[in-house]
């Protein structure tokens, strides 16, 4: 079996373990750096098994410096992260213990990785120019390739997180490019990245649907709170009960052309309409049941004075609960509507920084590729 096939098989096994046995990662976190050291050792052995210890040590070093770039960037922004965990033939990752407040902050954290990755192989350039040892060209080539790949504009790669400041629509074009590469060179690693990128792009597209549904629920909650204030002033609750009962018993209607399933993104309009109808029914039903309980509840008066009824604790509790839900909805709406918004000046800075890093990495990649042709026999 060729080395490339062995690597692909090991990658597939590693991806399966990550997906199905997440307890392995939890076990590795028994100490602050235990997971990092153990996973680093496993990755080092796996790379050494196929490519030798010298190259394995270089790969681990390049990946480690890349991840430390993310950690340093997170520290600068005051965001706590987990220790790095290495995955053989996949790379390494760190987990953020809190979400960035906006896409600009997330882009800063993402940029730290490939920037540190660039710095990681610069010593190898100097060592090659000094010793003319072909091994250092392999290090430069590998470092440039790893970080260029991470700059692809696909989420969850670093490049996708960086360009999200510009527009998340760029993810789609990145997926097209990666899809073409997958057709040209089928590889489990590329397929895994393509799959993750597809889910990220899909999820981002559904955020607009989520935002519209939340905005409608926000409107219904405000109407519900305003309505509760009018109940004590009603001379009769009959008309209100008839209105709420009719709304609560309204037909739900088909969510997507009579189908129980729907085509994501294409059926969003019908899904939104169905969600709005469900919100109408839910709040009408809750209001109807509350009204029935409230009208039969005994009224309390201050000092027995019929002109001074005590405000209903039942209505007060319902108002408090609705207000809490309204706060949650408004907070999520604010996050969805502002997370990816940035001023034009920020977008220009991010674009220039992204392109500059991509160009520099590309130049080093070409530099190493040309020299590897000269030393082809030695590198083999």
UniProtKB/TrEMBL annotation:
Residues forming coiled coils: none
Main subcellular location: membrane
Molecular function per GO: metal ion binding; metallopeptidase activity
Keywords for the protein's UniProt record, in alphabetical order: Hydrolase, Membrane, Metal-binding, Metalloprotease, Protease, Transmembrane, Transmembrane helix, Zinc
Domain Peptidase M50: 55-126
Membrane topology, record value: Multi-pass membrane protein
Protein name as it appears in the record: Site-2 protease family protein
